[in-house]
Design brief:
homodimer, 406 residues, alpha/beta, Nucleotidyltransferase, domain 5, five-stranded mixed beta sheet, 14 helices, 16 strands, 44% helix
């Protein structure tokens, strides 16, 4: 490796450090960037200059509230300079979003997904047509760096094959390939399990910012988990880890859609709340809204359905706290909605089933990003290639601008 | 950093790469070391020379069976040049071992631990007196680099405080500090949970060599787990992760020693096997030996006790396979003894409670290191400081030797 190559490698790594810091932590002054990246003031000046010349960053004398004196200029990323298209496939809803650098949500559209097991290609059509309903309009293809997809099922991380999604009725669906073909853009399509993406989004922009050991538990019709171990997402050997909805909790329990008896999911998923409220297990999302509304209006049956579900959620969480020793449990999907109604019931049962040491250091909180956590996590993984090497995308324009100004 | 400092840093890192390779993979030729470390032939020559001069390595023209031609000389570590003292504290036994570089077991002694809750300082005395019963005799203090301790309880990794060991009757015992004071050696004492050490030992020297996603499940009176995620031990926020014995599996179950109802441990620990065989739950390790012997002799009650326990083990393992997506489940302690008798029962229930994708890629095997896995894992963590920086320990002697030969 000659000196020229080495210096180019270093330059790319340093650009990445700056862009990642701005993406994850938001706009900041050059001095803050010096502190956060460990680069020298002069390196920051040169590299921020390159990012500005490439149209990826701007620098403004922003008004900082509550700070005396003349404000320093702040460097920010230009959200629209590089964007991700994110999709999510839940049992009851489909969603699409365009998310720019810095995690800026530029547009979102959502539609109900009719029950019944629709073939994957029809779902792909539905997803892509959502792009036409974005308030911001269809994104310019040349600004899109990658596509991220959150799906309620087991995904092989290597190639985006959905191995098994019992609640969608899918087995061995090459979702990544189908979507890439349908979009016709020559950019990566990254497919992941929704809960694995949920924990990433909550860690980066939600309830678990700055916390490295996190258990995210997502409930809808099905129940899944995303785990952050020492700041890293736990994928397992092939990307299937986190299927905590399918932990057996009752040898004499109900038959789960996965084919096993007594999975935790049968006791805490949307169907279990509906059944406890006296409704059919498959009554659907509007019926669930009605149960929550009735509970808020004082209906004792609805309240009891929610509280009992909270207890069953809490005891299972107890076992998971013993297993993972997380600092935070984040409740996503319907569990985030359940939390304000059943906070005490959840904690009492968790307390009953945890060892004192891990119990003393854990907090249980609702997801801050609500039901959108998986969708926003899909955008984060799609933007990863720009964070890892901004120079690849912008190197050419930056180099041209540099030469012009020399 | 001037060039001299940088080159010293690089030298230390390269020495570490060589020593770690020899420690983990055994003796090999210089050519193999070139391949494994990526260092040049001349760097290997110089650094192996330093290790030899420091007395840490030797080089011999070993006979390689089954390879044609003249054998190349092989570089090996000198086991006794740096050793770890390892202790293990189980509910029924105490053990001590001296383990040298390369994982060579230089001596081991074991004693029964009388039931009843002995205070920690008395247990520490018992452990230290085991050193006098080593077949190799007490190790020379100047060769001991660190002490590793495996304990059947929750350990705060930061300082070796045993927060809680329900089956030993301990709460908040500063075991690391007690043992350091009693030994009077000014070297680190590293205390860890026995299952976290078991998975490390099986990964490095046992059933899971070369496998990066591993779930180790250890059974004695209590049940614990050690998990390897992508090659790294999962510790949790404070080192308490892996308490899978305390996952609730039966809301109407037995009271566990931890104070909760229906923990998995109450259904699969040694007490559960004894109870199913018609014996008191606390009948002890000899009674358990009798149950295994009776099963081997064809006793149907004993066989049924083992098989039923295997089924309950299998269904819980199913939930853990869904949770972790491991490539291998290693059964340690009594579960390793149970495996040959109940292999089919374990697998049938695991099959019933796993999703197809993670099930298709997992194997369940008995621990290769048997009941000693935690003890050997304790030695591995104690030797870590030498692996990370052999130059600190041997730099001085190596430098002197180098100067003498220059």
């Amino acid at each position: 490796m000659d000196l020229g190559q080495r210096s180019e490698t270093v330059r790319r790594a340093n650009l990445s450090a700056i862009v990642r810091t701005l993406h994850e932590e938001g706009p900041q002054s050059r001095s803050d960037l010096v502190t956060r990246t460990g680069l020298t003031r002069s390196a920051i000046r040169v590299l921020v200059g390159e990012l500005k010349a490439a149209g990826l960053a701007t620098e403004d004398r922003a008004v900082r509230h509550g700070r005396p004196g003349r404000p320093s200029p702040e460097v920010s990323l230009v959200a629209g300079a590089a964007v991700a298209v994110a999709f999510s496939i839940g049992v009851d809803t489909l969603a699409a979003a365009v998310v720019g650098m810095g995690g800026t949500l530029l547009g979102l559209s959502r539609t109900d997904r009719p029950r019944g097991h629709k073939v994957a290609s029809a779902v792909v059509d539905d997803l892509v047509s959502l792009l036409d309903h974005l308030p911001s309009g269809r994104p310019e293809p040349e600004t899109v760096v990658a596509v991220g997809v959150a799906v309620a099922g087991l995904v092989r991380s290597r190639d985006g094959l959905v191995e098994n999604a019992p609640n969608l009725g899918w087995t061995s669906v090459p979702l990544g390939a189908l979507l890439a073909a349908r979009l016709g853009w020559s950019i990566p399509v990254v497919v992941r399990n929704e809960s694995d993406l949920g924990v990433l989004a909550e860690h980066r922009r939600g309830a678990a910012v700055g916390i490295d050991d996190v258990l995210y538990v997502h409930g809808e019709v099905g129940v899944g988990g995303g785990v952050l171990v020492d700041g890293r997402p736990m994928a397992g050997a092939a990307g299937y880890a986190g299927e905590i909805g399918h932990v057996p909790v009752d040898a004499n329990g109900l038959l789960c859609r996965c084919g096993a008896i007594g999975c935790w999911e049968t006791q805490i998923g949307a169907g279990a709340i509906l059944a406890r409220a006296g409704l059919p297990r498959d009554a659907g999302p509007e019926a669930l809204d009605d149960v929550f509304a009735a509970a808020e209006a004082g209906d004792v049956v609805a309240q009891a359905a929610i509280e009992t579900t909270g207890r069953t959620l809490g005891s299972g969480l107890g076992g998971l706290v013993n297993t993972f020793n997380p600092r935070m449990v984040v409740l996503g999907g319907i569990f985030g909605r359940l939390h304000p109604h059943a906070q005490q019931a959840i904690w009492e049962e968790l307390e009953r089933h945890t060892l004192p040491a891990p119990r003393a250091m854990v907090r249980v909180v609702p997801a801050k990003l609500g039901v959108d956590a998986p969708l926003l996590g899909a955008a984060e993984v799609a933007l990863e290639s720009v964070l890892a090497d901004p120079a690849t995308r912008f190197g050419h324009r930056a180099r041209v601008a540099q030469l012009a100004s020399a």
